Amino acid sequence: ALLQGSGKRMTCFTSRPADPPLRTINGPQPAVPLPMAYLICGQALGGRFEIDMAFGKTKLYPLRGAVMLDGFQLDPFLPETGRSQQLRATLSGRLDLDRGALLRPDSLTGRLTVAELGIGTRQVQMRNQGLMQLAFDRGSVEIERAVLSAPSSSLQMAGNGSLARGLALDFEGKLNLGLLSGFTRIFSQTRGQAYLRFKVTGPVWQPEVSGVAEVRDPGLRFAGFPEPIEDLKGNVTFSARRVLLEGFSARTAGGRVELEGAAELSGLSLDSYTLEISADHLRLSDFEQNGIEVLFGGKTRLSWKSGDRLPLLAGTLQLESLRYTKPVQATPMLSDVYRPQRSDTERYDPDRDRVALDIRVVHDEPLRIANNLLDAELVIRDSEQPFRIEGTDQRFGILGTMSFKRGVLRFRDWDFDIRQGEITFEDPNRLDPRFDLIAVTDVRRGGDLATSWHVTMHAKGNTEAFELTTSSDPYLSEEDIALLLAVGMTRAEIEQSQTGDLTETAALEALAGVTGVGREVRRAVPAIDDFRIKSAYSESTHRTEPQVSIGKRIADRVRLNASTGLAESREFQTGVQWQLSDQTSMEAVYDNQNDTSSPVNVGDLGLDLTWRLEFD
Description:
Blueprint: E1 3-5, E2 8-17, E3 36-44, E4 47-55, E5 63-73, E6 88-101, E7 104-120, E8 125-128, E9 132-137, E10 140-145, E11 147-150, E12 153-162, E13 166-176, E14 187-202, E15 208-222, E16 230-238, E17 242-252, E18 255-266, E19 269-282, H1 285-289, E20 292-305, E21 312-324, E22 356-363, E23 367-370, E24 374-381, E25 388-392, E26 396-411, E27 414-427, E28 433-444, E29 452-462, E30 466-473, H2 478-487, H3 491-496, H4 499-515, H5 517-524, E31 530-538, E32 543-555, E33 558-565, E34 572-579, E35 584-591, E36 604-611
């Protein structure tokens, strides 16, 4: 006969004469023979089974016989873990029933022999070592032998249980911490071992688990945090409903982290958790590779509850110091000055988010930008609203305002002193700073004060589009100011000069920008952080000529630069800039042009001392 339904397929169903009589359970009723026996075999739950059982025709259905299982999948009977890596289990073995009644489970007597048991996830499974044997007799069970093992993991079970008295089981062993990343999104990577001792007690239908775990030689990575966790120490205690983490400390990112927390359980799955995290003197190597030197700490809380899409990391981030040193590779051409910049569209997959962020940022010292384009200090303005990081680890934004405490903006050979400025962040989903700053410089040609201008630059906008306006004293049009900064001459002077020479130098400068000569030189000679082919006004020839300029920061507030002409004049100039304090700076300059009538041309040596007075 073939029976099919409810996902089960029976391949045979036969009856045969009864075995010798079997008495029913103890009681006043008379002995009743077992008139019929059944042999059933088939497939169910992904495995094969065979039942050879004899039943008695009494009210309680006495029985004896055996049930054989081969590769049964027990996944539907396991609790949900709330993760994509669901628990899986397979079972092969034999159940022998010597006596008892179907409707009186506390009367059954027999033995369960497990030949193969595997339980775990797709990546890591624990399997039995040898046969697992359980003996049961009229409502009680005794574990005679039960050992599960996996790579770097083992668990030994012993004890007994009873339908009337409950469970009294002892477990002891070691667990591979690599299993953790399969059950929770707290960790993106885990390694090491945890030594476990716990008991299972209470009623059979509602057992309770309690015990302790000792972690040894762990290596962990929190989701959204790139640095490994080392030298982890602490105590874990757990019960059927809760896990406590107490007194944990670890080394990571060059600093120390302290952690305490608790997790609420529902079966084998997490219902919620909260971790209190304190950190000091941390450095992120990934940031340093991108030119960001940051030292930070703070107090944060990582929390999650069932139903939340992501765990939330919230609290305060304390910036002990921050320094941005990555050089700006592109040097703007004259035609780039007013050109809006557009950012590339980034692909975003919400399913790859791991942590949601809501962090307030404060600092101990001003934030520093020190590269070939900008040398400035910024401070967070949080008197009106806190400076915060929001979003996720994959897509985050900043809300708040920063202002320039001091700064110098370099445009070609000109240093613009930032008099006032601020950077505002208003988008919680991306880094989109809006800036508004005013900077000034003095443009002088030679030692003649009559040919000098006080130039003011006002820039505002964001990274996608900005507006740049300039003014000067004495007055020049914005076109003349742009030409003066780019090639050292105004429009009228260009028209009076040799147009061919200017065209050639501009073409050479454009060719250098297009071919990326500067980028390749910086790559070949890492000691140079600024290399440019530019146009400059020559005092000796009174025309614009091509020049090569290089620069290098040799100390926190000291920078060297040098330039030489590519035309026949071969003009050479070098200098050193030293920022003595926030208000005082000094620059020493040497060039090979001598304005005197001395027969020995040793060049000119000059010294500029700048002092700034700030007041409200």
